[in-house]
């Protein structure tokens, strides 16, 4: 029979005395590990309970570290200016938890981005196919924003006025040339006078 394998015994987790660590290197390592654990537990607390939290700690080297939900500034401001405080539960929208103002800004930026994408796409289409705007399919108008439609409307009105003006100039020119080439009915031909008519 084989001898029983001996397992290597480790120290495992053991209880330590909570007192100042004298070794500077060990103190810094312990601070770093425990800070990460503290921030993790703070995040879990806000996730589980929906509360607001701010944790600010200073390292042995006097460097500041902070964690906050929704933010450290928000929590501190709610303590300093309680009259202006708004609970996140009052301003949360949907499951994503964005505030209304942030959601509105995001929506506006998305609209602007979509409009810019449409303009870029139309511009590329015109450049690649050398098409003018009047050669583009009528369906492309459906993708235009209100500002673009207003600009197009103004351009079309201006185009109509220019076409009307040119047509009128051309008609005036042609009617003048017609008057010159047609005989005046009041002037009689010399041959007609001689014949006695």
From TrEMBL:
PROSITE patterns: MADS_BOX_2 (PS50066)
Signal sequence extent: none
Chief location of this protein within or outside the cell: nucleus
InterPro entries: TF_MADSbox, TF_MADSbox_sf
Stretches of the chain forming a coiled coil according to its record: 99-169
Keywords: Coiled coil, DNA-binding, Nucleus, Transcription, Transcription regulation
Record domain MADS-box: where: 11-71
Stretches the record annotates as Disordered: 169-197
Superkingdom assignment: Eukaryota
Compartments where found: Nucleus
GO cellular component: nucleus
A GO molecular-function annotation: protein dimerization activity
Protein name per its UniProtKB record: MADS-box domain-containing protein
